[in-house]
Amino acid sequence: MGEILDEIADCVPALRRYARALTHNRDGADDLVQDCLERAIRKRSLWRPIGPIRPWLFRILLNLHRNELRHLRRNPTAASLDEFTERLATPGSQFEHAALAETARAMERLPDEQREALLLVAVEGLDYRQAAEVLEIPVGTLMSRLGRARTALRQMTSENGRPVLKAIK
Questions:
Q1: Is residue 58 within 8 Å of residue 120, measured between CB atoms?
Q2: Can you give the residue range of the structural domain that contains 52?
Q3: How far apart are CA 36 and CA 100, in angstroms?
Q4: Are residues 41 and 64 in the same domain?
Q5: Which tens digits make up the pLDDT trace of 83-99?
Q6: Where does the RNA polymerase sigma factor 70 region 4 type domain start and stop, copy by copy (predicted)?
Q7: Is the pTM higher than 0.70?
């Protein structure tokens, strides 16, 4: 039992990164990761060690996030002032910070399905098969979503048809 808990603990930084990218809110991301960890520990008997535990945890986190989005659509709430001011805060004026902020804003504008796929592959480093498992879609569908996401990001982060940032891999 201790081994699975150690594996889960090793995944916490990646879960926090992914949750933050999905929610755009530090507190919301922390709550989402906590809910994910609680569920994973409570349901650890369902884990079948046929591969890495990381995709299983990402699937739990993503399902919890989607459930929360459905709940918010049915019961909308006003955004807090802290959340609003956090979004207005921008990094220093260096080109790299500006480019990173521009890319992050562009990623926020992607459709959820494209952003989820791109984050799993480009940020979290999951291979296509693992990312497709997390999203519960065929690998071909994942590749299509990634292609559309990358094309959209290139368009959103270009000036006069010329890329401002290096091409997104």
A1: yes
A2: 1-89
A3: 28
A4: yes
A5: 444 544 544 546 666 66
A6: 104-153
A7: no
